Each structure stands twice: as C-alpha cells, then as structure tokens.
Amino acid sequence: MAVRKLAPEEIQPKSFTFSPENVAFAEQQIAKYPPGRQASAVIPLLWRAQEQAGGWLPRKAIEKVAELLDMPPIRVMEVATFYTMFNLDPVGKYFIQFCGTTPCVLRGAGDIRQVLERRVGDQNHVTADGNFSWLEVECLGACCNAPMVQINDDYYEDLTTENFEKLLDDLAAGRPVKKGSQIGRRSSEPLDGVKTLTDPHLYDGSMIGAWRKRFEEEAVSAAATGEAAAATATAASSPKPAKPESGRAIETEKVDTPAKRAKEGEAPVNPAERKEASDGSKATAVEQRTENAGKPAPQSDKSYVATPSKPETGRVTADAPTTPVAGTPPSDAETRRDGSESKPGKTPDKNNKSS
Ligand code: FES
How far is the CA of 148 from the centre of ligand 1 (A)? Predict the structure, then answer.
C-alpha cells in the first residue's frame, strides 16, 4: 500500500465550506449521538466532505469536519489517512477501483490492468481530460463475477478487455452504461444459466405449508385406523421410570429434610434441635484435649530425605547404564534400560543387586 499523506500544498484549495444540504446532514448525524460524543459522526461527515470536494479530501475539508465535531484536527486527520475509502489526492470524474486480488487475477484481471495502464496511465494519475484515474484495491466482494472494477459507486463485473474498453469509451463519451455484469449474467448465477431451484412452484406461494399439510393428513389417517389411540393407551399404562443416571429428576424423597417434614405437616425444625442449636455454649465448641497438655507436639520419625530408587523396583538409578552403546542393536545390548540382563548368561550388572 502506498504511503497515505495529504496532497501537496500547491493543489490544496484555500478554503472549504459545507453546502447547506451537507450542513443539515451533519446536524442530523451529530444528533444521533449523546452530548460530548459527536466525534462518532466523523466518518459520515468526512464522506460527505469527500463527495462535495469531487471525490477527495482536501486539508481544509478535514479541518472543517474537526471544527464541526469539536475535535482536534489531528484526530480527524488520523481517520482520513487510515481508511482507504478516503482519497487524499484528486481523482478523475470516473474513479476506477480495480480489484487485483487472487480470484479476479485468476479470471483475467491482469488484462484489465493492462487496459488501464495503456488508457489511463499509472495509478493515482488523472487523465488530461480529467475523466479517469484508477487505483488497485483488495477484494471488493464480487469474486463470483470476476474480474471486476468499481467505478465511483457502481460495480462492473464479468469484464473482458473488449467490454471494458467499450465501457471506458461509453463513459468518456457520456453514453449510458450498463452496471453489474457486462455479459448479461443475473446476479451471481452460473455462467451457463440457473441449474437449481428452478421449480416455479417455489416462487408462487403454493409450497408454503405443504409439509405441515402432509403431516396433518397422516395424523388424521392414523387416528382413523386406531393406531394413535392404541399408542396413547400404551404410553399411559406403562410409563417409563426416570433413570437417575440419565440426568432426570427423581420424584421420591429418600431423606428426612425440613422440606419433607413441612410437606407432611410437621414442624420443619424439631423444637429440641432448635433449642440446642441456639445454645451458645455448644455452638461450634471444641472440647480441649487434656491428656497431652503441656507436652511438645509429637514429631514424625519419618525422614524427608528422598529415598534412593531401587533397580529392582523398576526405576532407574543414576549410575545404571541406560543407553546401549551407539550402534549396538537392542538385541545385542548388555542390559536393558532397567538394568536387567538382556540375554541369559550375560555378566550380571553390578548395580542389579537382586540378580
Ligand atoms: S477478488 Fe475481485 S472481487 Fe473478490
């Protein structure tokens, strides 16, 4: 991406004033936000300023937006220079945004670029008649109809060198042009016509509720043969018990709880228990043990020194050979990783005390 900076001073206009229509638009946008939050309207105001200035943002327009929104000009400058939707240099009457992303390139965008370079010149260059300028941009979201360009606010898709040259000719001559696909494709349907969803009943409303109607007819038919009544009777006479392990609630109460007592008409809390619970001398009292009073706390006779591992327990000692000599096949190794013999009759390992 090119460095985004303001246009040279020599081409900057000396002033910028919003038209009455755009002042009204700005007031409407600002009114959308709470007091003190008017900066939220910065992008729509910059966009209107760009449209009014002929497709680009002069310095004075940026400063005017800052003034209207009571923002430091540098803050508005940051927004204007960040978003590529804002042009910082003059553009042609027809500003062409050429998609140079992979799907378009695979469908021939390279040829379209050559047309632009030949007829318009380099990017960001306005033709002598002021009609055209172009800029390469990333995917514009019309990949189904690649290659494509955006000219001002409209998309032109399914481009070939022939139809694109004709499009530029028509624009330059002021003739009406066709927006969208240049080969007659509707939306993004397949090139050789629609192959799916072709049933006209899908669009005349006759399919609405068709499945529900079918289910209702089947239900009526089942009821007529008595199947539904039989199924209902079976379900009522042999209900399936809930299984605790299935996560469903168990209906039976198995414990003596206050809720159960209340349900059975008893006092939820036994009066004797309530009295005992309110007795402060018993609450959370821990009786002092007296037999060890005055004696030091018993010490454990266990050592906290780590016990050395024993080969016979299957653990490896530090000095036990654990890796066969390089190049020795495992089958010929003197010992296994655990220090035991790998073959009968071999010299016992000195560390393996159990052998
Ligand atoms: S790649 Fe060109 S529109 Fe998506």
Answer: 7
